[in-house]
Amino acid sequence: MTDDNRDGELVRQLGTFDSIMMMVGIVIGSGIFLTTGIMAQSIPSAGLLLLAWLVGGVLTLTGALTFAELGAAMPQAGGQYVYLREAYGNLSAFLFGWILFLVSMGGSIAALGVGFAEYTGYFFPALSTERVVLSAELGIFGGDQTFTLSAGQLVAVAVILFLSAFNYVGVAFGKIIQNVFTVVKIGAILAFVLLGLTIGRTASIDYTLNPTGLSIGGLLVGFGVAIIAVSWAFDGWHNITYVAGEIEDPKRNLPIALVAGTLIITALYLLVNFVYLAALPVSEMVGVVRIAERAATALHGDVAAGLISAAVIISIFGALNGAIFAGPRVYYAMARDGVFFRKVGEVHPRFKTPAFAILLQAIWAGLLALTGSYEQLFTYVVFVSFIFWIAAAAAVFVLRRSQPDLPRPYKTWGYPVVPLVFIVTMGAILLNTLFARPVESLAGLALTLVGIPVYYSWRRSSQRAV
Hints:
17 helices; 4% strand; Amino acid/polyamine transporter I; 466 residues
């Protein structure tokens, strides 16, 4: 077990409120405004749609309760990376960090940046992703490839660099941005709910579980597909563990942030979906991507679409800031273990932030946003991400056996049932993903395995430098 002193250069500046706002702000991005219409294709039932969101919240809570034990026992920068390292060794932890930097976090930041630009384009069409500013023919591998660059991609890079700069110059700046935008985000969602239920043109909700007469098998398969969509709307809940090295009294505050944050997110998601269903019959939701705009228009008229777009911009901005804040703490931990660029493990002497890690992440995410390659990469790592979630949750069992004397100021409520529910459910989703997307899943596994020679190369370089 590694001592807390390795994080001594990072200053613990995040209190309970900061930590909760960090978690809520990271998770609630654009998913809640886009996902329900896609889910309705699989389960065209109001009752099952609400149940899917509730199940997603309960599943996330089982994961949060499990990670809370690990985070309280090992409150270091890196979070999930540290849990994997202590339970399974350095290689497994590195492979998690490798994929996180290469695709999961870098791609998420790029996607959030482009999403921010897309909604900004609603108000300023000249800055939209539809406005092409450069198009060039490239002769690559003997073929003609067209590279296009849109104004929206430039906006995405600009907002990534802007927020990275604020996080570079101090934790205080990053947490202030996070707190303000998360509070505004929660306020906007609650306003949407309250106005929708009080002055909106609502109708009664039909809670029939199977209005279209699907077979039991069809309902179960559709519900499973919907749960996958819900899981990604909740994605990011574990990112708060990455910044454990900067949370005050982490043995208390990290579990509180994980549990309280999950409960807040679940409540908001259920309320928003209740309003969607009060605004539109399920039959009008099927396949609608911008479901929030459609519902708001039905409730309040055309002017509401602009207000929803503004709310989405605020939501994405907060989620983007949280991702930019959290990711570098994992790369910092990797570098301190000698398996990433040594400079990434340095803390800025004045700002007390992992400054070079933030800079490196900004450059990589900006490149992904410019090339647009993050969308394809995402499809490759869905399968691998589930593997790492399951492995981290299983670390609770592994470490209780291998390190029984490890101080555990918080122990998972409902152990061993709660972590087992998370592991088994995520395992089922993992298998479903493998069968649904076998090529992408195996490609993601191959991309992960490429990290093995990279790991040993970095280890040799680190040993030679000693």
